[in-house]
């Protein structure tokens, strides 16, 4: 699957050039031209990298970055801006940016930085599972949401880890049970439903619902899947 990049840039010629160039390199690219539409995309979709302009309509890039970092501390962000002074670079990096590139820039240099940031994210993914503001440290066996620890049992942690590995897709009850409990699903048992309900309660104490029940079909982890979603298990 192609890595997903969100470009937040209000200058149409720069945005068009970046979208075209990065798509030609094989990346899945979307574009937002202002802070509001950018935030909507950041909330609804997981990204491998965000390219962020400083000056934006509605909400500037610095404010958007700070808000984003309150819910997602792992997705790399590269600032693209004409503000080249050292004081601005320091401010951007201290606010949560992973890298900083001043306009005008050479596309080959941008591409090298894109590759480096995505490679760093992939290296971290070996020991850490992340979806938006939810993360599991596989080495320490700890989970958190919005930077706050989640007090999960071993089975709840395993269930969350499975969901994090398969975001935004339909997962059948049998598939989940076989992968997490390592045995066939007993159709008469409510074990899975109880664990999903408890995990959902703990996750929702720090943010909106991400575990959705599709009646008669299974579960969906991530942004709401739309029509057909029901309530609790």
Give a written overview of the molecule.
The chain is an alpha/beta fold and 233 residues long. It has 2 domains: 4-125, 3-Layer(aba) Sandwich (Rossmann fold); 140-221, Arc Repressor Mutant, subunit A (Orthogonal Bundle), CATH 1.10.10. 41% of the residues lie in helices and 21% in strands. It is built from 8 helices and 12 strands. It has helices spanning 12-24, 35-44, 61-71, 86-94, 107-125, 154-165, 173-180, 191-204, and strands spanning 4-8, 28-32, 49-53, 77-81, 99-102, 128-131, 134-137, 142-145, 148-150, 170-171, 211-214, 218-221. Strands 2-1-3-4-5 form a 5-stranded parallel sheet, sandwiched between helices. A 4-stranded antiparallel sheet has the order 6-7-8-9, covered by helices on one side. Helix 6 packs across helix 8. The longest helix is centred in the middle third of the chain and has 19 residues, at 107-125. The relative contact order is 0.10. Residues 227-233 have low confidence and may be disordered.
Task: Please describe the topology of this protein.
Blueprint: E1 4-8, H1 12-24, E2 28-32, H2 35-44, E3 49-53, H3 61-71, E4 77-81, H4 86-94, E5 99-102, H5 107-125, E6 128-131, E7 134-137, E8 142-145, E9 148-150, H6 154-165, E10 170-171, H7 173-180, H8 191-204, E11 211-214, E12 218-221
Parallel strand pairs: 1-2, 1-3, 3-4, 4-5
Antiparallel strand pairs: 6-7, 7-8, 8-9, 10-12, 11-12
Helix pairs in contact: 6-8
Task: Name a few traits of the molecule.
single chain, 233 residues, alpha/beta, Rossmann fold, Arc Repressor Mutant, subunit A, 2 domains, four-stranded antiparallel beta sheet
């Amino acid at each position: 699957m192609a890595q997903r990049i969100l470009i937040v840039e209000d200058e149409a010629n720069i945005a068009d050039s970046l979208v075209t160039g990065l798509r030609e390199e094989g990346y899945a690219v979307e574009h937002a031209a202002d802070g509001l539409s950018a935030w909507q995309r950041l909330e609804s979709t997981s990204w491998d990298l965000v390219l962020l302009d400083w000056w934006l309509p509605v909400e500037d890039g610095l404010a958007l970055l700070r808000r984003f970092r309150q819910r997602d501390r792992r997705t790399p962000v590269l600032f693209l801006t004409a503000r080249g002074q050292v004081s601005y670079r320091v401010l951007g990096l201290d606010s949560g940016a992973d890298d900083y590139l001043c306009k005008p820039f050479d596309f080959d240099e941008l591409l090298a930085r894109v590759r480096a940031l995505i490679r760093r994210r992939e290296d971290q993914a070996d020991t850490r599972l992340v979806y938006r503001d939810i993360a599991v440290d596989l080495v320490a066996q700890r989970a958190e949401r919005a930077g706050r620890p989640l007090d999960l049992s071993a089975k709840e942690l395993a269930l969350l880890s499975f969901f994090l590995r398969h975001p935004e897709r339909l997962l059948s009850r049998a598939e989940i049970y076989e992968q997490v409990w390592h045995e066939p699903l007993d159709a008469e048992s409510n074990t899975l439903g109880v664990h999903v309900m408890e995990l959902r309660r703990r996750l929702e104490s720090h943010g909106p619902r991400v575990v959705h029940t599709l009646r008669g079909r299974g579960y969906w982890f991530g942004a709401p899947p739309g029509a057909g979603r029901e309530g609790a298990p």
